[in-house]
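The passage that follows is intended for readers who have already worked through the single-chain material. We present the inputs for a multi-component assembly, then the predicted structure in tokenized form, and finally a short commentary. You are encouraged to pause after the input and sketch how you expect the pieces to fit together before reading on.
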Amino acid sequence: MAQVEVLNGGAAEKAVVAFTAVKPQLVVEAPKAGDAIEFYKSAFGAEELGRTLHPKRKADQELPLVLSAQLGLAGTTILVSGCTDESAAPVKTAGTGCVLCLETEDVEAAVAKAVAAGAAAEGELVEGDGACCGGCVGKVKDPYGFTWLICSPAKKCAEAE
Amino acid sequence: MAQVEVLNGGAAEKAVVAFTAVKPQLVVEAPKAGDAIEFYKSAFGAEELGRTLHPKRKADQELPLVLSAQLGLAGTTILVSGCTDESAAPVKTAGTGCVLCLETEDVEAAVAKAVAAGAAAEGELVEGDGACCGGCVGKVKDPYGFTWLICSPAKKCAEAE
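Having made your guess, compare it with the prediction:
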């Protein structure tokens, strides 16, 4: 595999690099990208800001390949991309991986809305012991295999049965 | 497994749920959490905002369990958590998964700095065809198994050999 050469490791180490945004990118199986975008709108109220389709795939295939859709959610841009052969993401071992934590004042309603849209709730709402944002935490798994923690910023949990 | 009951699916579907933040949480093997935090500071200039340790593990184990460290990066909070038995994340299949895209004006320097800190560059810098933020894209894999896309917002790529 080709590697980018580090031409000047010393200088690079000291360089001040400014980042202007962090955008989680959810890579899903290509034919499911369109559905995934609709799901995130419905489950979390994400707003579609733009969608880039593969130029060659548009014409000759039934389902256009979504290279990247930009979804706005709580001031963050989340990217949803159809998986292509070249964009293979790493296989994580069980127990490790990237999950997305959504902060809200109303965890119970947010979990219920996500479940109504097709996510699966995992476990009960629990008081976070520091594992997430510190407050009440609910967990849902979406139909595309991603886990979302839905948590409140403060130490308050609605009465969950 | 216990499931959160959807008591009133209809109402939930219509509920307006406001999210105040999206925080990517990187779950790493518990003994590596401290190293991972240092790596993200060194590689990306993340700033540690806070760290919550497991109260019971602090006293009787050599390495305290990091329940959650909050790292500030480009206005976003990234959480780094040590994996506990209860916090199992899903195993993703090859090609799909969550990657984090970092936007910067200087992709080349950012990739070089990450590599100097211990990340592995994957492939050359390429002009994005829409797969990410639309500009120049570099890809690095960090020592904890996470893939980061480092991309410029506009269509400009430094001369990469």
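Commentary: Chain B touches chain A through 94 residues (CB under 8 Å). Strands of chain B lie at 19-29, 47-53, 66-73, 76-83, 97-104, 120-121, 126-127, 136-141, 147-151. How closely did your sketch match?
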